[in-house]
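Q: For a teaching session next week I want to show students how multiple molecules come together into a single three-dimensional assembly. I've collected the sequence lines for a complex. Could you give me the predicted C-alpha cells for the whole thing so I can convert them for display?
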Amino acid sequence: MPMEKQKRDSFTEWCRSGEPFIWVNAAAVSLSAIAVVGLLILLAVRGFGHFWPADVMQATYTAPGESARVLIGERVQKESVPIEQLRSAGFDLDTDKGFLDRELIKLGNRDVTGADFSWILSDFLSDINYPEDIMVLERREWGNFYGYLRGVKEDGRTVTGAEQNPDVLREEFASRLDRALELHEKIEKIEKKDIGAINYRMEKLRLRERGLELDEGLSAEERSAKQTDIDAERAALDAEYRVYQDELAGLYQAINRDSIVAEEMSGRQVELRLAKIVRAFEPNAMDVLDKIWFYLAKFVEFLTDEPREANTEGGIFPAIFGTVIMVIIMSIIVTPFGVVAAVYLREYARQGLMNRIIRIAVNNLAGVPSIVYGVFGLGFFIYFLGSEIDQVFFPEALPAPTFGTPGLLWASLTLALLTLPVVIVATEEGLSRIPKALREGSLALGATKAETLWRVVLPMTSPAMMTGLILAVARAAGEVAPLMLVGVVKLAPTLPVNGNFPYFHLDQKFMHLGFHIYDVGFQSPNVEAARPLVYATALLLVVIIALLNLSAVALRNHLREKYKSLEL
Amino acid sequence: MSEPVFAGRTSRFAQWRKFKDKAAVAGITAGGSGVLMAILLIFFYLLYEIMPLFQSAHMEQAHQYGRVGSEAPTLYLAVEEQAEVGFRLAADGSYSFFRVADGSPVKEGRLALPADTEVTSFTIDSETSRIFAVGLSDGRMVIARHHYKISYPNDERLITPVIQYPYGREPIRLTEDALHKIALRDSDEAMVAIGYTAAGRIEARRWVKEEDFLSEEVTLAEETLNLPDIDIKPHTLLLGPTQDWLYVLSAKGQYRLIDIDEKEVTDAGVMFDNAQLTDARFLLGGVSLLISNSAGETAQWFNVNADGAIHLKKIRSFRSDDSGIATVGPEQRRKGFVTVNSEGQLDLYYSTSQRHLASEQLPSPVTQVAMAPRAETLLMETQGGDFLVWKIENEHPEVSWSVLWEKVWYESYPEPDYTWQSSASNNDFEPKYSFSPLAFGTLKAAFYAMVIAAPLAICGAIYTAYFMAPAMRRKVKPLIELMEALPTVILGFLAGLWLAPFIEKHLPAVFSIFIFLPVGVLLFAWFWNFIPMRYRKHVPDGWHPLIIAPVIIAIFALCVSMSAPVERLMFDGDMRAWMTAELGISFDQRNALVVGIAMGFAVIPTIFSIAEDAIFSVPKHLSYGSLALGATPWQTLVGVVMPTASPGIFSALMIGMGRAVGETMIVLMATGNTPVMDMNIFEGMRTLAANIAVEIGETEVDSSHYRVLFLAAFVLFMFTFVVNTVAEVVRQRLRNRYGNL
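A: Of course. Below is the structure for the complete assembly, covering every listed component.
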C-alpha cells in the first residue's frame, strides 16, 4: 500500500519538522491574548451597560399551579435551563421541550415584595407590553420603585389626582421633586459639612480639656484661664449648633410636606414621600437621545456622588478620592528611596558580594506576598510605631488611638514598601541605558561624581524614574490585600482631606476602589443588586491602571528612542 | 571611576564640592543599604512577634506564709479573678477569705451546717460558677458559692468576698445515709447531684428548674434518678457539665462510665496498672479528665465515639519523672494545668500542644493547688499547712510543632486530625491551630494555578521569543504586561461572581474544552499543512497566533453551545448532581478549578516575561550556528536554545510559584475558604494568605491567635524568600554564562 505509507511518512515528517509544536506554542500565545481581551470586553460590556435606562416591561405571569399576577420590572438576564433541573427545583411542568427559558426580572419595590429580583419562566409570560407611563423611582432606601404615578399630595391632602391630565400630574410631580431635591441638598450640607465641622471642633475641645487635665506642670491660674477659654468656645459652638438644629428642623418639615401616590404592580396604591426620592423617569417614553443624556447623567453621578444603600447604589467618589490620595502620599515616600537605592546599586556599589546581596534583597522585596506587607504594616507601623506616637504626641486622646489604628499614613507607607522594588528596577534600567561616554565626559571636564550624577545622569534618567513611579502607582492602585489590614474601610464618614483644620488627616481611614469591589461584590447583603455597580467600578479601576501602564510603556519607548541616537 | 583631580589651589569652593561629593557617597550608600535593612526589618519584626509562641513559661515563688483559718484539713482552695483574695474551706465547715499576698484574713466564718452533722465530702460545680457543695453525714448537702463583689470607693478597687446560698441556707436532702462522695452540676435548666453513700450505693437526684413566666420565680421539681449499682469503690465521682456522663473512678484505676439519661454503664475498664489514683479533675470545659497516679503519670482521657459506641479513651499522657503525682491544678480559661508530685516538684503543662512548659522545685510537697482564673497566680498548701504563692508567666502555651504540623487528637473528635479552627463562640473552646490544612490549601491552589499557567506561559514565551514576527511581538508584549498589571481583586471578583457560576452551569463545556482545544489546534495545524503553498505563502512567518485565534474561539463557542444538550443527553440534565451521585465527587461552586484558572491567569504574565527574556537573550550566534549546520528552527530550539535558557525558565517557574503561593484576593474571593484537606479539584480550600486576611482583623493584639497569624505570614515570607533567592541566584549565574558565551 504505497499510498498509506506515503501518508504516514508525511505525518512523521510533519511531526519531526516541529510544525505541530510551533502551532501549539502559537495557540498558547493566542489563548493568553484572547483571555486578556475577553476579560476586558466582558468588563466593558457589563460595566458600561449599567447606566443605560432599560425598558420596563409589564406582563401577566401565570406560573403552573399559581394564579395569574401582573409583573412590572426590567428584564435583566435570560438563560435556557434543562427541564430536569427545573423539575428537580419543584416546578410541575407538563411539556415535551428539553429546555425552557428562564428570565431574571428586576421587580424593585423591595419594601413591598421583599426581594428586588425574581426568576421566572418565559413560557408563562403573556400580554407583554411596555406602557409609556410606567415610572421608575430611584429612592434613598429600599431600591428602585416601579409603578404608575396616580396623584400628588401636600400635607396629606391630594393636590393633583389621577383624574387630571397625566401631563399636568407629571409636571406637578417634577416641579415638587425639584424642590425636594434642593431641600435635600441643603440638609446634606448642614448635616455633613456644618454640623460635622462643629462636631469635629467639639471633639478637639474635649481633647484640649483632657490635655489640660494631664498637664501637671500647669499652675492653677493658668489652668482655670484655659478652662474658661474652653468653656467659652464650647458655649459658642453649642449656640451655633442650636442654630443649625433649628434650621434643620425647618428644612425637614419642608421636605416632608409632599408625597405622591403610586400604583405598584399588584394594583395597590402606596404613598411615597418625595424626601426619599432621588430621581424619577419613564424609560419607555424616552427616545435614544433622552437615554444618552440620562446615561451621561448617571455616569457623572457614579463618578462624583457618594454611595447610597450600603454602597450598592449611587457613586463611588470617596473611593476614587481615597485611592488617589493614598497613591500620592505613597509616591512622595517611595520615589526618593527607590531612586537612591537604584543609584547606589548602579553607580556607587562595588560589583561584589554586597551588591549581589542587595540585589537579592530587592528581588525578595518584590516577591514577598502582599499580605505579608499588610501583616508587617499592621504589627510594626500601627501597633508598634503608631502606639508609640500616640503615647508621646496624643496622650489626651488615649485610650482611643490616633495613629495606633489603621489609617491613611500607614497604608501609604506599607504600599511604599511594597512598590519600592518596582521603582528601583525601573530606575536602574534607566541608569544602565545612559551611555558611559556622557558620564566620562562630565568627569573629564572636572565635575565631581555627585555633580555628574545630579546634573547629567539623573536628569537623563527622569523618564525612567517616571516609568517606575507610574508602574508603582498602578500596582498600588490595584493592591487590596494589605490595605484591608492597614487602613481601608467600607464606608468612611468623611474624606481624608476636608474643611476641618488641619484639612489633611493622615490618621483617618479611607475608602479604596479595589476594596470597594471586594466589599460590595462579596460582603454586600444584596449582591444581585450591587453586581452592575461592581462591574462598573472594576471597569473604572482597569481603565485607570491600563492607562497608567500604557503611559509607562510609552515613556519607556520614548526613552529608548532618545538614547539610541546617543549610543552611536 | 577615578577621583577628579583639583588642580593647584584648594579653594573653599573646591572643598565644598569635595564635601558634597563625600556626602552624596554616604547618603546614597545609606539609601542603598536601606533596601537591605527593609527586608531585614520585615524578617526580624515577624520573628520578634512570633518568638513568644515558642518560649517556655516561667514560674517563681512570690510569697510564703503560715496557716490560714482552722486546724482542720483543707477541703478546697481558690483564688478570685484579680488574684488578690484567696478562699479556703476546711473540713470542719469553717471558711476563710484572706489576702493572697500575705495571708491576712479578710473575712472568716462557718458554713450554715445543721447541728449534729459533719462534713463527709466536698465537690465543686465548676471553677467559673464558683458553686460548691458539701455532703453531710446525714445524707443532706449544703450548696454554697464563694463570690466577690467589686466596688470602687475613692477610685480604688475594693473586693468584698461573700458566701452565698443560691438554693437557700437549708440543706437539701440527697439520701438518708452519710455521703462519702458527692458530685454536683448546676445549669440553667436543671441541677443534678450524685452521691456515694456509706451503704455503698450511688444515689442521684435531679432538680429541674421551672421558671414562672410572669413572676420569673424559679421552682425546683425534684426527681430521683435510679442509676445502676456499681461494683467498684469510688475514689472520685465526676459529673460532666452537660449532666449526661458520670465518671466513677476507683483508687486502683478502674473506671465506670455511666450514661445518666440511659441509666446504664456505657463503658468500664482500667486506666492503669500497679499504681494508685491520686487525683482526677476536669480540664476546662469538662470534656477531658486529667487522671494522675502514684507512678508519676498524668493522663488526659475523654469520651470517644468509635463505631457507634462511646468509650473513655486515653489521649495523651504527661510525665516528668517517676515520683507519684500528688495533685493537679487545671487552668480556668485554657486547657493547661499544673501538677505537683510527691517530692514537691511543680510542673506546668498544656494539653493540646502536649508541651511541658516549666518545672520548678517547691520548698516542700503540697496537698492542695489552686490556679487563679487568669492563670498567673498559683496558691498551694503544703503538707505542714503553710501557704505558697507562685507567680506564673505563661502567655502562649497553645502552640508547638506538633500542633502546627501533626495530627492532634482534639476533644470530642473521633480520631486525631489536622484542623484549623481558631475561634468559637464559647469560652471553653479548644483552639485548633493546625497549619497543615492551610499549607495544603496553599499548595493545592498554587498547584492548580501552575498546571494551567506553566504550559501556557512557557509555550507562549517560546513562541514569542523565538518564532514571532517582530511587529507582532511589539503588540503582544504590552498586552501581557497589561495582564500582569490587572489587579487581582478584579480577577478574584470575576472568578467568584462570573466564572464560578459559569463553570457550574457549563460543566460539560469545561471538560470538552480541556480535551478538544489541544486536539482541535493540532487538527487545524495538520490541515494547514495541506493548504497549497501558493495560498500559504501569503501569510508571513511568525503570525501563527493570529491564524489560530479564530479556531480557538470557534472551539470555545462550540463547546459552550453544546454544553447544555450534552448535559441533557448524558448526565440527566444536571452534570453537577450526576457527578455527586454517580462518581461521589462533591462539588463546591467556588472550587480549586476556578481558583486555578483565575490565579493561573494572574501568574501567566510573571512566568511569561521572565521565561521570554531568558529565551530571547540566548546569544544569537548559537542559534545561527545550529541553523547553519542544517538544523530546522525547531531542532535548534530544542537542541540549542532551550538547554541554554532552561535555568531562566526554571527561575521563571519558581517566581511564578512564589506569586501563586502568596496570592490573597483571588483565593479569598474565588473559594469558600473552608480549611479542608482534599485534593478534589471541585472543592475549595483555605490558604495561609487568605486565612490571614480573614482572621487578623478579629484577633486581639498580642494574643496567641494573633501571633499564630504572624507565624503564618512568616511561613509565607520564608517560603517566598527561599524560592526567590534560588531563582535570583540561578538568574545571576545565567547572566554570567551568557556573558561568557
